[in-house]
Amino acid sequence: DGEVGEARRAAAAGEESGGQPTIFSKIIARSVPATILYEDDKCLVFRDVAPQAPVHFLVIPKRPIPRISRVGPQDTELLGHLLVVAARTAQAEGLADGYRLVINDGKHGAQSVYHLHLHVLGGRQLGWPPG
Question: Which position among 56, 81, 115, 117 bears the catalytic label?
């Protein structure tokens, strides 16, 4: 059940509406430990605690946005920044042969934490189609 079960639990708890502290806001505040790979004034990058590939890290905005489907034109620069940081971190992590970027949205997208996050997975040949 794993990630899908977590997504169902989070949706049932009403977490998709945002406004509640998440594990990611606690990582940003340093009240929960994480292996941080990069940080600037807009975002934080850290290793996934349950990696699905040899290299698996998350890129999150410091400003809480619950879902990618909730972004607007005011978020364009931030979203671009997250992608640039993902690419630079992937390079620093040795993913020259490629990697996958994933954003889950909502219950059917298996989003388990309602704070926008970009998964970066690599270090092996990934299959297609995913899921």
Answer: 117
E strands, the chain, where? 36-39, 43-47, 55-61, 99-102, 118-122
pLDDT tens-digit series, residues 64-100: 999 999 999 999 999 999 999 999 999 999 999 999 9
What does the mean pLDDT of the chain come to?
Answer: 91
Q: For this structure, is 117 an active site residue? A: yes
48: closest CA among 59, 61, 62?
A: 59
pTM: 0.89
Structural domains of the chain sorted by starting position, each given as residue range(s) with its CATH number in brackets: 2-122 (3.30.428.10)
